[in-house]
């Protein structure tokens, strides 16, 4: 699943290529992916891209109406979910998309002939596309917590978010209404750097543990965003995998202590951790995971 660093990489890539270009065509191939109907998706056609921004894991392409150069147009907002991705083309295909016969959910063509597809692999479809007048009209954006790399996100901010939460810290980090942009992979990485068990209760963290967690969050995400910067979409997934210390590395050697990285499995995913670095050598049991994301 793309998380903040990869989404920011996509935003930077798109911002440098689509800003100032007219959207000539917007075609929905998977109707279930389109979550709004007013404005219609056709309202994007004829507008000019004015900016590209990130809200948590959402990408927001803002447009303007070229008739007078001042009126704001609709926003194309999308969330790639677990198996979605963006494919960029310097020359986008003009071939008619056959709904249900392709992984393409949305195709956007631009005035210089370039464009992109939003695609989704697998049978479980979660990719979401919105055409709205204001990004705040997207329910997922309206519910977002603060961005951990935002200027106002301090150690005090984090401490206040954790206070009173009798919830395991792994679940807190993944909760978009608490902290925006962190998902399963980077929560594993942050907790490994912080030397903290994913099962630690947020409300019971000491001041020193909050210090470590804040530093680990800022360091891990800042480094990952820098690594993603400047990379085309086709390279972002591999860059993410190469940068992981524990996530997705079950059975491999911890780069810090040399212990074996372990996994805990649950319905659709897993978490990875180092027993020596994070749990005092204890192997976590899967049976506890049912309470992880409550």
Automatic annotation (TrEMBL):
GO terms for biological process: base-excision repair. The keyword DNA damage applies. It comes from the Bacteria. SUPFAM superfamilies: Glucocorticoid receptor-like (DNA-binding domain), N-terminal domain of MutM-like DNA repair proteins, S13-like H2TH domain. GO terms for molecular function: 8-oxo-7,8-dihydroguanine DNA N-glycosylase activity; damaged DNA binding; DNA-(apurinic or apyrimidinic site) endonuclease activity; lyase activity; zinc ion binding. It catalyses: Hydrolysis of DNA containing ring-opened 7-methylguanine residues, releasing 2,6-diamino-4-hydroxy-5-(N-methyl)formamidopyrimidine. Residues 2-127 form the Formamidopyrimidine-DNA glycosylase catalytic domain. Keywords: DNA damage, DNA repair, DNA-binding, Glycosidase, Hydrolase, Lyase, Metal-binding, Multifunctional enzyme, Zinc, Zinc-finger. This is Fpg/Nei family DNA glycosylase. It comes from Microbacterium rhizomatis.
């Amino acid at each position: 699943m793309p998380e903040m660093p990869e989404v920011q990489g996509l935003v930077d890539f798109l911002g440098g290529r689509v800003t100032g270009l007219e959207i000539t065509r917007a075609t929905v191939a998977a109707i279930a992916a389109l979550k709004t109907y007013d404005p219609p998706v056709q309202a994007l056609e004829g507008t000019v891209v004015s900016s590209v921004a990130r809200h948590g894991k959402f990408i927001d392409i803002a447009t303007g109406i070229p008739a007078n150069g001042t009126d704001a147009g609709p926003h194309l907002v999308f969330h790639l979910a677990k198996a979605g991705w963006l494919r960029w083309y310097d020359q986008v295909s003009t071939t008619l998309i056959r709904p249900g016969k392709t992984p393409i959910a949305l195709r956007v063509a631009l005035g210089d002939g370039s464009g992109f597809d939003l695609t989704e692999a697998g049978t479980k479809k979660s990719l979401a596309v919105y055409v709205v007048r204001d990004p705040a009209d997207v329910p997922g954006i309206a519910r977002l917590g603060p961005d951990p790399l935002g200027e106002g996100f301090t150690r005090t901010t984090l401490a206040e978010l954790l206070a009173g939460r009798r919830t395991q810290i792994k679940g807190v980090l993944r909760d978009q209404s608490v902290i925006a942009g962190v998902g399963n992979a980077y929560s594993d990485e942050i907790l490994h750097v912080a030397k903290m068990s994913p099962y630690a209760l947020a409300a019971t963290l000491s001041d020193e543990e909050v210090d470590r967690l804040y530093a680990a969050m800022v360091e891990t995400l800042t480094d990952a965003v820098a690594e993603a910067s400047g990379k085309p979409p086709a390279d972002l997934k591999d860059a993410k995998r190469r940068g992981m210390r524990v996530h997705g590395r079950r059975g491999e050697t911890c780069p810090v202590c040399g212990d074996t990285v372990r996994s805990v499995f649950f319905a659709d995913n897993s978490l990875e951790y180092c027993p020596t670095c994070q749990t005092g050598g204890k192997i976590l049991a899967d049976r506890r995971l049912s309470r992880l994301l409550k």
